[in-house]
TrEMBL record:
The lineage of its organism: Eukaryota, Metazoa, Chordata, Craniata, Vertebrata. It catalyses: apo-[alkylcobalamin reductase] + an R-cob(III)alamin + glutathione = cob(I)alamin-[alkylcobalamin reductase] + an S-substituted glutathione + H(+); 2 cob(II)alamin-[cyanocobalamin reductase] + 2 hydrogen cyanide + NADP(+) = 2 cyanocob(III)alamin + 2 apo-[cyanocobalamin reductase] + NADPH + H(+); apo-[alkylcobalamin reductase] + methylcob(III)alamin + glutathione = S-methyl glutathione + cob(I)alamin-[alkylcobalamin reductase] + H(+); apo-[alkylcobalamin reductase] + adenosylcob(III)alamin + glutathione = S-adenosylglutathione + cob(I)alamin-[alkylcobalamin reductase] + H(+). Its EC number is 1.16.1.6, 2.5.1.151. GO terms for cellular component: cytoplasm. This is Cyanocobalamin reductase / alkylcobalamin dealkylase. CDD domains: MMACHC-like. Keywords: Cobalamin, Cobalt, Cytoplasm, FAD, Flavoprotein, FMN, NADP, Oxidoreductase. It comes from the Eukaryota. It comes from Alca torda. The keyword NADP applies.
Length: 235
């Protein structure tokens, strides 16, 4: 069952520059505090959805062109929402729940922890302070970051697709690729991400197969309120 669903999702989302990776809700819940648990049985089938560098040209630009008059909030969020909601039509006999990366609970906590989901699904390795043996940061707060084996830091985690009626007790977990394997590189990664993230150098911590185009970099470097202008939209 998982294979059929995964194939359907890849067929629906792959051509638009998205990647999907399956996981069981129980793998995610097992490593988090109860306040962050997803409210489904452990064997429930879920997928984490990533956008790759090609999403900008394959999904965002055509979406903006077609829907220009209907875009009222962040164009990327709306574009992702459009594509993930259309997935439901692909599975008319299935209940599909969608959680987007920007959704928050009334407590202001995110509805799901994106980087943890990407890690348990084997999509991207979530490098954290605990992955460094002798850490140099003392009392500083150090945030972790996911690195994709193919795109480095040039990707984004966009949402979860959950199939409440599909239980997959025998799904096997694949570990994410540990592509930043030396202590020095991990320190450099966390250092760059925490203290110099604006220059984006952490994204190239490994040899990447593809990165954002100059146009896409400029878009994401622009404050959200001014992005409409870049896409030729007026607010």
């Amino acid at each position: 069952m998982e294979g059929r669903v995964a194939e359907g999702l890849r067929g629906a989302l792959g051509p638009f520059g998205f990647e999907v990776h399956a996981f069981k809700v129980g793998w995610y819940n097992a490593i988090l505090q109860p306040t962050f648990h997803l409210p489904y049985p452990d064997d429930t089938l879920a997928f984490v959805v990533l956008s790759t560098p090609s999403m900008f040209d394959k999904a965002l630009k055509p979406f903006v062109k077609k829907e220009r008059l209907k875009i009222i909030r962040d164009p990327v969020d709306q574009c992702v929402s459009h594509h993930l909601s259309r997935v439901k039509e692909k599975f008319p006999d299935q209940k599909v729940d969608v959680i987007f990366d920007y959704e928050i609970l009334p407590s202001r906590k995110p509805k799901f922890l994106a980087q943890t989901a990407a890690h348990v699904a084997g999509a991207a390795y979530y490098y954290q302070r605990k992955d460094v043996k002798l850490d140099p940061w003392g009392k500083k707060k150090i945030y972790g970051v996911c690195i994709h084996p193919k795109y480095g830091g040039w990707f984004a985690i966009r949402g979860l697709l959950l199939f409440p009626d599909i239980q997959v007790p025998f799904l096997e977990q694949s570990a994410p690729v540990d592509c930043v394997s030396t202590e020095e590189k991990r320190i450099e990664l966390l250092e760059q991400f925490n203290f110099h993230w604006q220059n984006g150098r952490y994204r190239d911590i490994i040899e990447v197969k593809e990165r954002y185009s100059e146009e896409q970099k400029a878009y994401f470097a622009t404050p959200p309120a001014e992005r409409f202008r870049l896409l030729g939209l007026t607010q």
